[in-house]
Amino acid sequence: MSRIIGIDLGTTNSCVSIVEGGHPVIIQNDKGERATPSVVAFNDRGDVLVGSAAKRQQAVNPDRTVSSVKRQMGTDWSVRIGGKAWTAQEISAMILRKLRQDAEAYLGEPVTDAVITVPAYFNDIQRQATKDAGRIAGLNVKRIINEPTSAALAYGLNNGMPQKIMVYDLGGGTFDVSIIEIGEGVIEVLATSGDNHLGGDDFDARVADYLMDEFKREQRVDLRRDPAACGRVREAAEQAKKELSGTDTAHISLPFLAQRDGMPVHMEATLTRAKFDQLTADLVERTAGPVRSALQDAGLSPAQLGRVLLVGGSTRIPAVQAKVRQLTGQEPSKNINPDECVAQGAAVQGDILQGSHELAAKGDILLLDVTPLSLSIETVGGVATRLVERNSRLPIHHSQIFSTTAPFQRAVDIHVLQGERPMARDNKSIGRFRLTGIERAMAGVPQIEVTFDIDANGILTVSARDQKTGKAQSITITTNDRMSEDEIQKAIRDAEMYAGADSLYKDSMTAVSEARQLIAKAEAALKEKGKAAEKADRKQVKADVAALSRLLFRCKPEKMNEQDVAALKDAMAKLQASADRLQ
Ligand code: AMP
After folding, report:
1. Same domain, 359 and 412
2. I need a labelling partner for 320 at 20 to 30 A (CA). Which of 37, 441, 506, 509 fits?
3. Does ligand 1 come within 6 angstroms of the Cβ of 557?
């Protein structure tokens, strides 16, 4: 039996883990990284790159690069690249396939089974889309679990003390806050709240906007018209943001960023932490509402929280940590790695499902997840009649009797809704079906039993049955947002077809990225050595930097041929040699 891997399929980064010797370990990818950027890129020939190779070329190939696709899960979004429209499931499947391959390389055996995590806020369609993505990637998705539950599971392994905790998860694209009860062998989600359009990406965008506004003011060049320049600014903004988690100032240096009157213009800027905090204060403040609402739903005051766990890379931002302190009145725990604990928890869940977990022998850990939003059906007058309250514990089996509104009505339409609003039109429509063959009777006489079943993965099935005739509708929720079996099979075939990455393209991107790093290193060495180095040596390094920068300015990885790569490598070798002489 294949071992079950745990996957944190994140908006910005994804991570894969497996339990070894009773402990979850993070599996490094083929580049030795512990997290793989959730970025997918295509070249002209339709070859696919996933991870940091894709992320690195994003600035020069923005139109054929997809990032933050998790935000699109469960919608009818698609992106047309290379003559094909790719769905969010298909793009996500490419990331999952890469993680699977990395796990296979690490384990030295085929991997077919996985536990995948999703934000607690994901609705049924988004969960189903995640499962479909796993299928396309050749994975049998054993369980979909909520990210905060997963983090708590990783945490619960280290500390068995019964307590109620808050998981504050601010990642790249989503914000989740959950109140969790850790008990004797039971981890229960008491309440969840969040915002699935708030994360580190928004912080990057604020910094990038600021940099571009300043650039326009100073240089009179509108970078927003140049997608490649925008991409580079965005990359630098994220870097500066990360630096500012540890220092008070960050320097942004982007040579040859644009042209004005045929002359190259460069960006040189400094960002202080105070300015960064000012630019992003409202984003940090937006996390307060969900924190209060989760506490309220769980019926807890902040003082009743045993611990507050920080999850997600964006919780490294000092202002975010200060906000958490202010909201909860306590120092958040950092003894759990914010970037890795979700994947680790998923691996633990996989281990439990496999029956080999040390705790499984003691009677298993029960993961009691909750449904993130209320579920209802539309009844007379467009009212949303609730069958399942939000934050109800999974699995759920709930039935309610409904009747007809017109005499001799032979069919009823069941319109399934998700959301908290009282009127049907204000909630999300997640499915519709018709039950026919109802007993001929006066209005209000037929007894129609409507049942909502939500399994442990949070996947919903709705059924309806006329109690008199016994006529039951075997119901699948028909929604265009879901993929049919045929579509999944086709997507699997397409994914196979596009799986091979082109080596020239890879070489081009590697060379471009290494050239950039080399320039940065050489410039740093020039600064560091200063006048201590020979004047002629310094002059040579400057000339070689300029030559390589000029070459780089013209290089677009998707258009480069072997000669271009060779020319770049030559210029790099020259710069390397002159920079070495500075030492
Ligand atoms: P995750 O989805 O948990 O991998 O979080 C990714 C997000 O965390 C991205 O937006 C990163 O830019 C952000 N991030 C990672 N490290 C840091 C850091 N040191 N300071 C601020 N943000 C960070």
Report:
1. no
2. 37
3. no
Tens-place pLDDT, residues 106-145: 999 999 999 999 987 787 889 999 999 999 999 999 999 8
The closest-lying atom of ligand 1 relative to the alpha carbon of residue 244 is 20
Co-location of 383 and 357 in the same domain: no
Q: Which domain CATH number covers 565?
A: 1.20.1270
Question: Does the beta carbon of 273 lie inside 6 Å of ligand 1?
Answer: no
Q: How many CB atoms lie within 10 A of CB 307?
A: 22
Q: Are residues 229 and 328 in the same domain?
A: no
Cis peptide before 395 (omega within 30 of 0): yes
By C-alpha distance, which of 253, 255, 246 is closest to 276? 246
Residue 363 confidence (pLDDT): 38
Full residue range of the structural domain in which residue 133 is found = 4-198+286-368
Composition of the chain by helix, strand, coil, percent to 5: 45, 30, 30
| Identity of the amino acid at 268 | E
Q: Are residues 127 and 250 in the same domain?
A: no
Kindly report the pTM of this predicted structure: 0.66
DSSP summary character for residue 333: B
Q: In whole angstroms, what is the distance from residue 26 CA to residue 62 CA? A: 30
For residues 146 and 119, the answer to whether their CB atoms sit within 8 Å is: yes
Same domain, 172 and 24: yes
Domain count, the chain: 4
Question: Residue 391: which CATH number?
Answer: 2.60.34.10
- Rounding to the nearest 10 degrees, give the CA dihedral for residues 570, 571, 572, 576: 100
Ligand 1 within 6 A of CB of 238: yes
Closest Cα partner for 359 from 87, 19, 131? 19
Q: What is the pLDDT of residues 437-461, one digit of tens each?
A: 888 887 778 888 899 888 776 677 8
104, 210: one domain: no
Measured in angstroms, how far is the CA atom of residue 171 from the centroid of ligand 1?
6
Query: Which residues carry out catalysis?
Result: 8, 70, 147, 169
